[in-house]
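Here is an idea for our session: we take a single protein and study its fold together. Once you have written the record down, we can walk along the chain together.
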Amino acid sequence: MLFFKKNKVRLKDIIPSGYTDIHSHLLPAIDDGAKNIEDTLQLVNSLKSFGFESFITTPHTFSGFYDNTKAGIQQTESETKIALEKNNIHNNFKAASEYLLDDHFISLCKKGEILTLKDNLVLVEMSYLNAPIHLYDLLFEMQVAGYKPVLAHPERYMFYHKKIDEYKKLKNAGCQLQLNLLSTVGYYGNEVMEVANQLLKNNLIDFVGSDVHHQKHIESFSKKIEIKEVENLKSIIINNQFFKP
């Protein structure tokens, strides 16, 4: 008896029309994403061709490395929206930020100098080397200040791999989890891809994001999805409708 494997689908082919992305680095010359406005235009047009309709772009705020401020990001956002309009790109486009979880971030929370994804939801990240020693204190303090964390790319934190209970603990502490779409095609390696699959299998993922920085990321949307939890992934992608303007 012959058994036929189900054909794998390309990542760009499961992006629904009208998709809202909540994680990208499209603002020019502000972090490690788009280098200039030409890069921005190229990246946005490429993402539009996949079905992206609305963009919440999230430049890094990382004290001592990417010292972005709310006002500075908003200024670049305004200039970028003018350039997009001039180039006949009329999609919804707003800026939030991807904040490193540290004491500087908490000080911004207390001063109300935070750019949210929507309402009081804030995209946060950790170092790839290790979690903050006082991680749960930081999460508690930001929530006391009135914000709710959406943790970016949890599958990429190597120190949590093979520790599924740590992800459950984060969820219990009030974190929502955002999976990087490119993790499903193996862009960050097989181990990250497997963790992405496990998080989807255990229903721990709330939203997805492109985390697009450059053209190499765009090209990877043409790769085939390698994880098994494709149907679960599709349902999570639909969750992003929550952020639609």
Remarks:
- Residues 70-86 form the longest helix (17 residues).
- The helical segments are 37-49, 70-86, 103-111, 135-144, 164-172, 190-201, 215-220, 230-239.
- The chain has eight helices and nine strands.
